[in-house]
Amino acid sequence: MNVQELAGYTSAIIVGLVIGLAGGGGSILTVPIFVYIFGIPTLLATTYSLFVVGTTSLVGSVNHILKKRVDLRVTGTFAIPSFASVYLSRRYLVPALPDPLVQFGTVSLAKSDAMLLFFAFVMLFAARAMIRAKQPDVGMANDGRIRFGSLALDGLAVGLLTGLIGAGGGFLIVPMLVLLAGLPIHRAVATSVLIIAVNSFVGFLGDVQHVSMRWGFLLPFTGLSILGIFLGMYLSRFVAPEKLRKGFGWFVLTVAVYMIVREVIK
User: Fold this and answer.
1) Whole-model pTM above 0.85?
2) Strand locations in the chain, DSSP E?
3) Torsion, CA 198, CA 202, CA 208, CA 214, rounded to 10
4) C-alpha angle with apex 200: 196 to 205, nearest 5 degrees?
5) Where are the transmembrane segments (predicted)?
6) How many CA atoms lie within 13 A of 82 on its CB side?
7) How many domains does the structure of the chain reveal?
8) What's the CA gap between 127 and 101, in Å, rounded?
9) DSSP calls for 159-215
10) Using CA atoms, how far apart are residues 164 and 37, in angstroms rounded to an integer?
11) What is the pLDDT of the chain when averaged over all its residues?
């Protein structure tokens, strides 16, 4: 194992650590790790990301469920349309995208490059949200009812995002659960982890039928990520969530800028 591979496997622990501390954000790290450290093709990297983040988040969600932090009614409302969206996009939409994706005369943009650029811009959006570090106000309807229709539509949109770039979408799910379901932030984070876990697995199932998996690489990486989430859940008792979110936001911003610069100048 060379130094670069050692750094990559060490990063797996950081992925789990972030999910355990922040309740999400793992997919923001896994795709760049797979592409830039291990040299895995972009589309396969998003597939691997779905498996790693799904498995790691599932471990975290079990802890939240046992402590009764997860709102299962809200989970079902958000998750069912999201599951359908992510599966259909991974099974049919992503494989159907042309390569090159854009062609203007002699200038073209490869499908893999376009996906990385889109992922990087999503990271910029996520970084901005985390750096602002302002919790949304509870946004239940005036009559006190949860906005189930809006939750379902948001689930469709997040599922599409997950399907296209292999990101769990936790940075979008948590604010929506607070604004549209009126959940306290700690319950929103716990519910989000469960949604991310199942969303990621559904997307992975849409891929596994037509992708050759390197299980000898993927399973050890996932095991280290699971080790990280246990460490993260322990440390979360001592780390202020707002400071963590803001610091992680600056880190995500740095990675996103690096990805954009690298893709543009290569």
Assistant:
1) no
2) 102-104, 107-109
3) -20
4) 155
5) 12-37, 43-62, 74-94, 114-131, 151-179, 185-205, 217-235, 247-265
6) 32
7) 1
8) 26
9) HHHHHHH----HHHHHHHHHHHH---HHHHHHHHHHHHHHHHHHHHHHHHTT----H
10) 21
11) 80
